[in-house]
């Protein structure tokens, strides 16, 4: 339901003020749209009704179509309308000649009645967007309201036929020519024509048969209507025969029928209105046979229909023209009027809040402001009472969000879990006396979001096992991996917070009971019954261990390396739980060493990658690069293919791109940094191919991927080696070789410097500073040595001479010292997380590809100094940009950038913008070289000119399954050149039209130009005498607004026409299979306008298996319905494409290999050759493409030759052509 509740008096005001003739899709509809101020984002998409074009309605009642309840002078109704009774007022506007019918169908004890002094209409619905028909119901008596607008029956061209003196003079001349003997012909006046037609219509509506036919050659008829009015007459029911015109024959009167009688009744009303407009001054209306005097307004009839004849009004009545703009917004929001009494205003607020609870903060905000504006003691007292009962305003909601360091504008993009994490952080670091305030802020947010989970947290309301765990364990992350023993320990801690609080003790028991019932845990039930925990049986303890590490399948026997990874992940996430983690780890390790049949891991499917924190987009990119077989094989053969370095630090190693020449040579320092990155990537790729479970990138890999190669020094400190395999190989390592031995962790006793950062990544892309607490284990003393909390307390007592009172603590009892990471590693993590929050997938992809080009030796140098590598063949396309002056330049790029501000209709349209004509720079671009893969970045951000503001485009771009590139290649075809010239001409014209559109539309006040003039006109009109003599300013404003609006509409129409014609240029005739590209991978991003936050995941296509997979960090799943990739999405909520990658169709099965998995050797297999280092690498680089320039057929690229010896039939040039 849209929040559009309106009381009956407000509805009448809306009917009088609203003009639905010139409605537009972007205009606010007062019946079905949210009131202004309810939703700022919605407001930004809406325009207000233009006062210049709007009719100042003068509604009168069409009596013959109106059915009203009986009434007397004392009550709105003589007796309450019967159930099922239907009533209607048919209104006609004397100015614009539109009709509106308002009907009310009663369902029972109708309003007004006790506790419901007025109808309150809600649930407004529009049956058809193309029709102005609305329905609603009364929230007090369920009466059904219907409002139907109808346009005039006599269209403007028909009015011209009846009143245009030029046309009437032509009919006079025709009559003279047809009968020259008659000399008493006179041209008919417009008023006489209208009067004659009105008489005909009046006679048609009479029950008695009178003058039912008119001779076609009747002199008065010919002079009035001639033959050019024939179509109009037939449209209103006249029947033409060979010799006569028959008057319409409507059915018998019935106010509820919709037939010819209603048409004629409408025509009659409209004729009278047109007659008044064409009536000369001083006309004696008594001589007009078909005229009727102008009736009074329909206000009284509408009030009778809706029961508002005697509603309680304010002693100081405030009519709409006297209200300020803000007051009008507040009253509109409450569905009320300015003349409402205080009691009625309170009634309107109560009904709005009851029917739209989610909008209560907005309604309460308006109610409070009106109470203060009216200076009403009654309303102000009522507002204060409501506030004490928990009501709050929109500003209170914004304040609550800011209290937890959340931007209110981005609140809809933040999950409830994120907010709960902020709440827990704030609560755990605050004093007890602040708890009420913290919980109240969360309560406000919970009610504003309609979140039951947050309400439970705010009120300590525990209804489920999950909410019980969240209440007991502040760091609970939503998975049921807390053991029964841990639950009892947490319950003891919670009880100990206030042993004398009986309510708290019972709440703890209730929480544990919920968990016990959920798990069907006898262990917890025994504790609840006896107060003592029984010893765990072997099976229960093992089940608890599996549950702790969130391992659902207990039939899997875990390898030691896998258990070590589970341990490391648990320690990194919860270092304070080292004892509990160690206990579960030892149990699983002991269980895994028993002789249990092993279940083979699935090496037919790829593995996921664990998120280090803000690195979801890096995981998506790594999965994408891993699926590119030549890229992966190049990384695997790094040692054989790397760039050799000379001793001289000043040595230059060529240029990467043509545009880099003479300014950005590859330096030795850049090569060294690139070569520090590739081995970390090779180790990860090896893990991804051999490990049965999700792999974990290292912080070292992440930091090196994100660092800037162009800088002279590393962006990030070097991370220490941290792979399990290397530590296990060392005699001093601490790899777990027995059930009682811990996996390798940094030695906390030798850690120097400050403890690891307490920064906690609560949500995507945001770092929350956790305040320091007494639970921190180590602090630096004055001499630089570590001090315990107890030592610090002692030193405080010695300094002051008396003991300091302890603050109430929310922390669990003391725990063993947490493992300390080295300062270098902590710095690496902090710097990497910070950089990750500032970069998107496209930027990091570009950095990785540059590193790859620098790290490997080139196949050759093009043009003497341009490094040519397999990476260039795979990812980089060459552009030839031609200026109008005739000059041209060659550039190379790894990505095609699509600007969604241009609203492209498809990926192919994005390519048209990238390779085509750029009117701003007056350049035309073509492709001189196309790689195996095309990376297309979907850029959703653009900057406005003045002021420069980053804008976010939600435009959805359909993803083409196939794109064709022939039209963009260098060509000597005259026909293609002709079509390109046609494109340039269209684009130039579009460029000029769009500039004109911008000048007509954009203003400093963020309004469309004509709308800004409308508002200026409205302001000056309202100001009236206060501005003094404005001369003809109002007339000039109106003329300028109309002129600009007409020109803007014409420009927009021409732009749409040009864009359509440009899109229909027949480039498809040049498409060939050799340059067709298939969609291969899509990287999605979900989050706000800034790409620096949110979440990334990837979809990668497996052409051999004919399916898509979704790579969401550690989870890799088959895509059951590809529509989730290709259907229209919302970037902020469901996510949308950030990068789209296409592969050349004839290379897709050779270049793309998403599933590269190597199962461990089986028993009995001879591995001697591998152990001696004799590894057959014949096929390692199969699939590396040749260059398209400078290679002879059959040549093997130098990189491939150094890595393998391939047979002639395996020559890569057989599948990759230039």
UniProtKB/TrEMBL annotation:
Write the record's keywords in alphabetical order, separated by commas: Coiled coil, Hydrolase, Protease, Thiol protease, Ubl conjugation pathway
Report any one BP term from Gene Ontology. Answer: protein deubiquitination
Disordered, as annotated region: 20-49, 709-840, 1160-1218
Q: Where is the composition biased (Basic and acidic residues)?
A: 36-46, 790-800
EC number(s): the record gives 3.4.19.12
Q: Does the keyword Disulfide bond apply?
A: no
Task: Name the residue ranges with Acidic residues bias.
Answer: 1173-1195
Per UniProt, residues of the USP domain are 607-1145
| InterPro entries reported in the protein's UniProt record | Papain-like_cys_pep_sf, Peptidase_C19_UCH, UBP14-like, UCH_repeat_domain, USP, USP_CS
One GO MF annotation is: proteasome binding
Query: Spans of biased composition, class Polar residues?
Result: 747-760
Positions in coiled-coil regions: 1034-1061
User: According to the UniProt entry, which residue ranges have a biased composition of type Pro residues?
Assistant: 810-819
Q: Which reaction does it catalyse?
A: Thiol-dependent hydrolysis of ester, thioester, amide, peptide and isopeptide bonds formed by the C-terminal Gly of ubiquitin (a 76-residue protein attached to proteins as an intracellular targeting signal)
Protein's name according to its UniProt entry: ubiquitinyl hydrolase 1
Q: Give the domain of life.
A: Eukaryota
